[in-house]
């Protein structure tokens, strides 16, 4: 057993040892219930410190791959079934027939550009001459590079922002690796990191994004391999970073040369804030993902990922063994929408409409004593006295919103719900009345005067 484990280790760091044991477990060479050699035995055989092996064992324990049974030793853990429910599946509110579903996080269909003329201009769609054509239409790549917030070494197009995040995670994150994210964060990202066995560490935010001082402390405590950020229209809070905050974060990360920055610019052209990226300061280790779903249409299923060739190259190459490329027909549609004056004007109209909707509902809520943020994008992050009571109260009024808990890496000081304010085009005062009655337990008409007990994560 000792020879099997040490023979599989190529990288003698704690991360490398944990990854090697993980591969053996996945391959079935270390089966559930197998007793592992002692830390000292493994350390002696590999010629490393017992502390290094202990750290590897701790990573594997946190990920649920192994378990310690006191003096009996350490064993390969049995699979835990059923697996934990994905956070993403918890986002939908109690939407029923006839209810107003503000839990979706999708754009208003009426504010999307019309694809009819773009599809006509594409013609017969003969945009692919070979399975080995470049994955991005040359004209689209040229335009994307002009729009990119820093000069990317390599750029490709994939099937949406989540597809990009999934593929980048598959390339750079291994079992037991520490990964830093914002707290709160987008639940599907947390699901993707959970799926590969990463150890996720959340860094609190303020009104300008992830806090640099707290990021510095986390990186001092954990050997992170990547930091994931939403630079604009953060989901769920709506926060957009300024260039000064990007510079401050880049300064902190400058002292950690092995940490990759992955940016999810999911709101794209409907974001009110100007594009910003840590790639302007750290281009050699920043992957920027630009999505066109919320601005040009979710069913286009297109996002671009650009950054260092050592990351983007393998991502593009691996796709050759699966989908190969994102539909060049849809790429042609996107290229047309990005250059057609009518479509560009429609996106500007949508951006202005979303800004007005955010500002209007925020003003109404604040007039009723409700705390909320919605600086950018299509979502509103509302503080509530009790998440469960708020959800039930809103459901009784025929309104569905997303619970806040799935967004939280660690519990926040207060409960929240996320409201897709981008779908609200009228009736702001009436909606604010209902939201306030759900948010504040001592609001007249809320049906209760009971304050909630102290609570942790719901």
Walkthrough of the structure:
The protein is globular. The chain is built from 16 helices and 16 strands. The strands form 4 sheets. It has an 8-stranded mixed beta sheet, sandwiched between helices. With 458 residues, the chain is of the alpha/beta class. α8 links the parallel β5 and β6. The chain starts with a helix and ends in a 19-residue tail after the last helix. The C terminus is likely disordered. It folds into 3 domains: 75 residues, Winged helix-like DNA-binding domain superfamily/Winged helix DNA-binding domain (Arc Repressor Mutant, subunit A, Orthogonal Bundle), CATH 1.10.10.10; 115 residues, Alpha-Beta Complex (Aspartate Aminotransferase, domain 1), CATH 3.90.1150; 211 residues, 3-Layer(aba) Sandwich (Aspartate Aminotransferase, domain 2), CATH 3.40.640.10. It comes from Paractinoplanes brasiliensis. InterPro entries: Aminotransferase_I/II_large, HTH_trans_reg/aminotransferase, PyrdxlP-dep_Trfase, PyrdxlP-dep_Trfase_major, Tscrpt_reg_HTH_GntR, WH-like_DNA-bd_sf, WH_DNA-bd_sf.
């Amino acid at each position: 057993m000792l020879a099997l484990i040490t023979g599989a280790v190529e990288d003698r760091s704690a991360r490398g040892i944990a990854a090697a044991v993980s591969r053996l477990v996945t391959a079935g060479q270390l089966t559930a219930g197998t007793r592992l050699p002692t830390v000292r035995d493994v350390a002696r055989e590999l010629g490393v410190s017992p502390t290094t092996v202990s750290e590897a064992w701790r990573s594997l324990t946190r990920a649920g791959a192994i378990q310690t049974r006191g003096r009996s030793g350490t064993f390969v853990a049995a699979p835990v079934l059923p697996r934990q429910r994905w956070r993403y599946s918890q986002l939908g509110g109690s939407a029923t027939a006839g209810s107003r579903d503000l839990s979706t996080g999708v754009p208003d269909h009426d504010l999307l550009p019309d694809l009819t003329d773009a599809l006509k201009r594409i013609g017969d769609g003969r945009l692919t001459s070979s399975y080995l054509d470049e994955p991005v239409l040359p004209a689209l790549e040229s335009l994307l590079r002009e729009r990119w917030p820093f000069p990317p070494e390599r750029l490709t197009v994939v099937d949406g922002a989540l597809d990009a995040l999934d593929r980048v995670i598959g390339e750079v994150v291994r079992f037991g690796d520490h990964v830093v994210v914002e707290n709160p964060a987008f639940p599907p990202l947390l699901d993707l990191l959970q799926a590969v066995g990463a150890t996720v560490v959340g860094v609190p935010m303020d009104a300008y994004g992830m806090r640099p001082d707290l990021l510095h402390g986390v990186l001092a405590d954990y050997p992170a391999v990547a930091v994931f950020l939403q630079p604009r229209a953060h989901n769920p809070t709506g926060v957009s970073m300024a260039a000064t905050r990007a510079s401050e974060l880049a300064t902190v990360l400058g002292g950690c040369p092995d940490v990759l920055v992955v940016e999810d610019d999911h709101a794209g052209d409907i974001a009110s804030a100007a594009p910003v990226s840590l790639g302007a300061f750290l281009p050699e280790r920043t992957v920027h993902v630009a999505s066109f779903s919320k601005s040009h249409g979710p069913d286009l299923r297109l996002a671009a990922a650009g950054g260092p060739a050592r990351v983007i190259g393998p991502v593009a190459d691996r796709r050759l063994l699966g989908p190969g490329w994102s539909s060049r027909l849809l790429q042609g549609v996107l290229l047309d929408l990005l250059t057609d004056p009518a479509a560009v004007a429609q996106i500007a109209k949508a951006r202005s409409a979303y800004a007005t909707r955010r500002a209007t509902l925020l003003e109404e809520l604040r007039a009723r004593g409700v705390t909320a943020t919605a600086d950018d994008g299509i979502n509103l992050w509302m503080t509530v006295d009790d998440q469960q009571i708020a959800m039930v109260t809103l459901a009784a009024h025929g309104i569905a919103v997303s619970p806040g808990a799935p967004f939280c890496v660690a519990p926040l000081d207060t409960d929240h719900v996320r409201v897709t304010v981008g779908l609200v085009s009228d009736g702001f005062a009436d909606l604010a009345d209902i939201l306030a009655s759900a948010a504040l337990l001592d609001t007249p008409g809320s049906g209760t005067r009971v304050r909630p007990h102290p609570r942790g994560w719901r």
